[in-house]
Amino acid sequence: MKKDSIIKEEIVEHQQNKQLTSAELADLFSNFMGDSMFSCVFEHYLQVVQDDEVKDYVEFALTRSRRHVQEIGNIFKSENIPVPVGFGEQDIRKDAPRLFGDLFMVFYITQMASASLLLYGSAFSNATRQDIINYFRSTLNDSIETYERGRHLLLSKGMDISSPTIPYPNKVDFVEKKSFISILTGRDRPLTANEIKHLHYNINTNILGKSLMLGFSQVASSEKIRKYFRDGAELADKQIKSFADHLLKQDLPSPKLMDDHVTDSTTSPFSDKLMMYHGSLAGNVALTNMGTALSQMMRHDLAAELMKFLPVIGKYNNDGLNMMIEHGWFEEPFTATDRKELSKSSPGSNKN
To answer: What is the pTM of this model?
Structure first.
């Protein structure tokens, strides 16, 4: 153990002057933006939540998001990197009424923790500097605890987001016919457990996305932005119906919608900038989930159905990005040096 400790100290000392990699910069920036946004969302929840158990859970999530923002800010300062603007008090309307019910708040935080597990796992596996490895290990642990607490709280409130159950197999079997994956005859075979898992997971994420977009469409300040969110809710609804149809055809239950947990408030608790960024984040998560599901689908008809949504979601995300740029809301992520531009503006570039 002493030898391991010495080796770790030597690694830390060796890496003290090691520059952050592009992967570490990218993940720290995304994490800062996301958690500064979540901190604002959780602050609104805390102002309007009614259930004491839900309040405790929101406080738990808020504490962790704030800590992440502070820790990343400290890393950037130590590296003499400008700390991103992100989101803050200017993006919350403290006197706004509740836009979502208590149960939605728990569902929202639980789903965000689930998505964070994938993002932090990727960040951890791409980190090389020991302090960054340590940081993303701690965020993974935070997400695990947040997700686990949220699942338990949802169950205690009568909401189960688990995948459907199927009978246990009674023997080991091997596929004998290529029709198992055929686009024509394969669609008649029962869904595999893995296909059920990914259909169910994508339904749950779209249930969250639809309710979120419905709420935002009620409170955004301009008709153009409200329409963008209405279109997002409609796109999420199409995916829910498409994926749920496959489950229902196999007599498997589909998760319930959360639309009734959106209030009738038309007063926004958040800035348009925050809501647009949240819409962009939701779209990116949807593409990630869709890509993962696509790689696991063995029935060609299921794969084709997923693929038809990819360009639609991509265009929706691009439209949102253009709107944010138009309003000056898109904070530029860290980028590589433009060598061609530098060569044009260098003192020697005007010499004959």
So the answer is: 0.90
Least confident of 145-149, 169-173, 252-256, 272-276: 169-173
- The matching CATH number, chosen from 1.20.1260.10, 3.40.980.10, 3.40.630.30, 3.40.50.2000, for 19-156 is 1.20.1260.10
Span 298-312, pLDDT tens digits? 888 899 999 999 999
- The per-residue pLDDT for range 298-351, each reduced to its tens digit, is 888 899 999 999 999 999 999 999 999 999 999 999 887 767 777 776 665 555
What gap in Å lies between CA 336 and CA 154, rounded to an integer? 44
Instruction: Name the CATH topology of 184-327.
Output: Ferritin (1.20.1260)
d(Cα 275, Cα 336) in Å, to the nearest integer?
28
Is the Cβ–Cβ distance between 105 and 49 less than 8 Å? yes
Domain ranges of the chain: 19-156, 184-327
The domains spanning 19-156 and 184-327 adopt the same CATH topology: yes
Percentage, residues of the chain above pLDDT 90: 80
